[in-house]
Design a protein that fits this description.
The structure holds 2 protein chains of 2 kinds.
Chain A lengths: L14 H15 L2 H4 L13 E9 L5 E2 L2 E2 H14 L4 E12 L4 H18 L2 E10 L7 E11 L15 E4 L5 H7 L19 H10 L5 E3 L5 H13 L2 E5 L7 H10 L13 E4 L4 H9 L8 E7 L6 E4 L5 E3 L13
Parallel strand pairs in A: 4-5, 9-12
Antiparallel strand pairs in A: 1-6, 2-3, 4-6, 7-10, 7-11, 8-10, 9-11, 12-13
Helix pairs in contact in A: 1-4, 3-4, 6-9
Chain B lengths: L8 H16 L5 E5 L2 H9 L10 E5 L10 H12 L3 E5 L13 H6 L4 E3 L3 H10 L4 E6 L6 H14 L4 E5 L5 H9 L7 E5 H7 L5 H7 L3 E4 L3 H17 L4 E3 L11 H10 E8 L3 E10 L8 H4 L15 H5 L23 H4 L4 H8 L7
Parallel strand pairs in B: 1-2, 1-7, 3-4, 3-5, 5-6, 7-8, 8-9
Antiparallel strand pairs in B: 10-11
Helix pairs in contact in B: 1-10, 2-15, 6-11
Chain lengths: 336, 367
């Protein structure tokens, strides 16, 4: 690469764009289907149903403690596909780059995408790059779409939850949101908290094998656990009660949340999974979670009930009950 | 500092039991008002109202600085944002608060340069980076935040930053409590006094409540155990017929407050009258920028004429702020007025009592 920053010509469809793709993007991803540079990738798929998901990543800053937008873009879509119970197989990647974006930063992002894809066992097989004029983007936006294979009989939905089902959480809450906000200009505070961005497809597969009656998986990203549980309670017409003392939270995250006036239940996560399982399979599901990568801090945090449909309650450590409400309004800064 | 002890359920339950016992000795039901938004949230978030005895009512007062900001002040901030070459900055909670006709968030969406900052020093940095713009910081808050605002003005002066100014809508707490005590519509037996404000001003400014009005007050911290301890100390005073200003928040508050911070505020600001939403003008409860710092006074630098203020129809934030009406008793609560579509400021601000009731209780929700 002769240029050290993205130029408008890199999105022109001409020689500079080809140079960017061939010298900077394809070698990093190192995938046979991608190397052909066809407009569409031809893929082998097992027989059966397909799970398909897409997400766009606009996080600011793009590099943050423990990760970057690239890792987020792979893990986020892998997890979205995996929550359906599918095995994620292939990803597409679309970049929107702002004129002036450093090529070196692009390379860093590519490498972390490559590492995350390898860890998740998925292939990045097709992509696209667009360049927008300076001031019309924010450095880099990434869209990823993912395809996964759904095994026979796997049918999960947030509307399948029944009273008595147990709520499992795969680890500590709020790490990602606090890691991002700790880098915000004017808010820098000393913290050892890093993003939890991680691919959870193996964890999900293990839980599903141990607890085949699992009703649903959800990754509590934007809006945190509160939004996830409210959506499920609403879809299933059940109440949900979470026991506050059972929810794992790192002390630094709790402290930072309180300092910033955040409700830790509403803080974003990028490497956590909620599983809702029938009560009789809860212990098996928890053991499988704890034995999985990224699941060592897993806990049973609550259960579904037949109280007011669509409501989520927190049973506080003092024996009082309060509502766990969804996040209202915008989250600042952008977190994913 | 390790605060885990202040969240210890066992200690909390012990205090709840002690509160129950103290309440049994009261000769009549009592109403205790907290006057700090952080207390409002702590009480709601920890479900503390639900564990109070039947004869102890916790009321939320005018403790959220965003909520008590008068319509007219919001209108001035909006007019400032409309001026060419001006960047208006403020804390996030100010963005959605409705003025008479608009809000800063609506003005931002309409293309005005309005930005959220976390500190006035952020606004000062922005002024340095954008020398061709006038950067105005809309400053709302009680005594807690004023020293930092004063410091930002002094720093701007030291560094010769000419394009930075403050629109001061600050308010001070003690005289507002006096206005509440003197309000015939308001029934308050005691105050949970604000911990952060008292860190700056200390204990003395509240003494008149006990001496002159025989109303007890306890300066209280913000963890659940802190709040319960504050309530317990108040009940003991009421039970024993005492009226004193006590400190339960010793780890944060010295009786004399913070002399350095007080001197800083004194240097830059002077008391002026302030218009409180729902209460009206309370003499001496505002803080105006002294004349020698006129250059950093936004309303002097950039004179604006806001339109005739208009109150929000049906909104009872004024009564809510005085503890006369509980949030869920307002006709708009949970119907026309929700955190997603707030009508009044008490539902907008994260520390507003309506928002706290809506977020953490079942009130106002269908189903």
């Amino acid at each position: 690469m002769r240029a050290d920053r993205i130029l408008l010509a890199h999105g022109s469809g001409g020689t500079m764009m080809r140079e960017l793709i061939e010298e900077c993007i394809v070698p990093d991803f190192d995938d046979d289907a991608l190397k052909r540079l066809d407009d569409a990738a031809s893929l082998d798929m097992p027989a059966g149903r397909v799970a398909f998901s897409t997400d766009t990543y606009v996080v600011n800053p793009i590099f943050f403690p423990g990760g970057d937008i690239g890792r987020l873009a792979v893990c986020g879509t892998v997890n979205d596909v995996a929550t359906s119970g599918a095995t994620p197989l292939y990803l597409s990647v679309g970049f929107v780059l702002e004129e002036g974006f450093p090529i070196e930063d692009l390379r860093k992002v590519m490498l972390s995408m490559k590492d995350a894809a390898r860890e998740a066992g998925v292939h990045i097989v097709t992509g696209d790059t667009k360049v927008v004029e300076k001031g019309h983007g924010d450095g880099i936006f990434i869209n990823t779409a993912g395809i996964g294979h759904l095994a026979e009989g796997v049918d999960l939905s947030g509307s399948y939850v029944r009273p008595g089902d147990k709520i499992l959480l795969s680890g500590t809450l709020g790490d990602h949101g606090i890691a991002i906000v700790s880098t915000r200009e004017g808010l820098e505070f000393e913290t050892s908290i890093e993003t939890d961005a991680a691919p959870l497809n193996k964890l999900i597969a293990n839980v599903l094998a141990a607890a085949p009656g699992t009703r649903c998986f959800r990754d509590p990203t934007r809006g945190g656990l509160a939004s996830t549980l409210n959506e499920i309670a609403d879809a299933s017409k059940v109440s949900i009660t979470v026991t506050e003392t059972a929810v794992p939270v790192k002390p630094q995250v709790r402290g930072a949340s309180e300092m910033l006036g955040y409700d830790v239940f509403q803080v974003a996560n990028e490497g956590k999974m909620v599983a809702i399982v029938p009560a009789e399979q809860a212990d098996a599901a928890l053991a499988a979670m704890k034995a999985s990568p990224y699941g060592e801090d897993a806990a049973i945090i609550g259960e579904a009930g037949d109280g007011r449909a669509g409501k989520v309650y927190v049973y506080t450590s003092f024996g009082a009950t309060r509502i766990m409400d969804m996040l209202v309004g915008e989250q600042l800064p952008r977190i994913c | 500092m390790d605060l885990s002890g202040f969240r210890d359920p066992e200690i909390a339950r012990g205090l709840i039991d002690a509160i129950d016992v103290a309440a049994q000795h009261l000769s009549r039901p009592v109403k205790i008002m907290e006057v700090c938004g952080t207390h409002t949230v702590a009480i709601a978030k920890n479900g503390l109202r639900a564990v109070m005895p039947d004869n102890v009512t916790l009321l939320s007062g005018p403790g959220c600085p965003v909520c008590v900001t008068a319509n007219e002040d919001i209108d001035v901030a909006i007019e400032l944002a409309k001026q060419p070459g001006v960047i208006v900055t403020s804390f996030g909670d100010m963005m959605k608060v409705p003025g008479s006709y608009s809000s800063l968030a609506k003005e931002k969406a309409a293309g005005r340069d309005v930005r959220i900052v976390y500190s006035p020093l952020d606004a000062l940095s922005l002024a340095k980076k954008t020398p061709d713009k006038q950067v105005v910081f809309v400053a709302v808050g009680f005594e807690t935040t004023v020293p930092l605002i004063a410091a930002s003005i002094l720093r701007a002066q030291e560094e010769g930053i000419e394009n930075f100014s403050i629109f001061s809508a600050h308010k001070t707490v003690p005289k507002a409590l006096e206005a509440l005590v003197n309000d015939p519509d308001v029934e308050i037996d005691a105050f949970i006094l604000p911990g952060h404000v008292s860190t700056i001003i200390g204990q003395e400014p509240y003494e008149f409540l006990a001496e002159h009005y025989k109303v007890p007050g306890v300066i209280t911290g913000f963890e659940p155990v802190d709040v319960l301890q504050g309530i317990y100390m108040i009940l003991k005073q009421l039970e024993e017929g005492r009226a004193e200003i006590e400190i339960a928040y010793h780890r944060g508050v010295e009786p004399g407050g913070n002399p350095t911070a007080k001197a800083l505020v004194e240097k830059v600001f002077e008391p002026i009258d302030a218009d409180w939403r729902g209460i009206g003008v309370i003499p001496g409860t505002g803080l105006g920028i002294r004349a020698e710092y006129d250059h950093y006074n936004a309303v002097k630098r950039i004179p604006v004429t806001p339109p005739e203020p208009k109150e929000i129809k049906g909104c009872q934030c004024g009564e809510v702020l005085r503890g006369i009406t509980l949030p869920y008793q307002c006709k708009l609560f949970g119907k026309g007025c929700t955190p997603e579509h707030p009508i009044g400021p008490c539902m907008v601000s994260s520390e507003g009592s309506c928002a706290a009731y809506y977020r953490f209780t079942d009130y106002g929700r269908e189903g």
